[in-house]
Amino acid sequence: MATSGTYNFTLDLSDIVEEAFERAGLELRSGYDYKTARRSLDLLMLEWQNRGLNLWTVRDTTMALVAGTSSYDLTGEKLDIVEGLLRTDAGDTSKQTDLTMQRISVSQYAHQTNKLTEGRPLQFYVERKPANITLHFWPTPDATTSYTFAYYYMERIEDSGKPGSNNMDVPDRYLPCLVAGLAYQIASKRPEAMGLVGQLKQVYEEQWSLAADASREKAALYVTPGGYNYL
Asked: Against a cut of 0.70, is the pTM above it?
């Protein structure tokens, strides 16, 4: 049995839009049809980021901490912090050490009696603002040694862009879900396709469940009971 021997199938932006229109029982006829579909696609990407942690968007980086400075603005594509570590002696193969830091809530940070206390940072609070996030460390880094904040963050999914030859910033395995979601969004805006909205939404949610389950973390999770007192 002959097979292609290739693994390159994908859909560019124009293919995604055309497929979504066909599923909604419509034809892509005008430049406005393409424009409104692209707008719906970008909104769909924002919705995906609200649905939870998309593992393909997790990145890691580091940031040097400055003695006496407790707050740091991050760039706009960094949506949230997944994990944060305090690194000392960065780059020294024999001495570099990563220490787990505790993420605290706004309430916990607000109740710190003296936010100017200097020492080795132990906790961080993530202030999520409309345009970016700001990290607040406690205690404020001191000058005893050089500290580096090593962290994993969730990155915003890139915009669709205008050229129809663009590819979406998602793994190929998410394309069935993306097309299904866009078909549902398009049908929701077109009176002649309203009869398919319920069906398309169901297909979209099924495809999302399949993609999300396939992309979940596969590492083993161990839970140790204890630490609670029962009366």
From this structure: yes
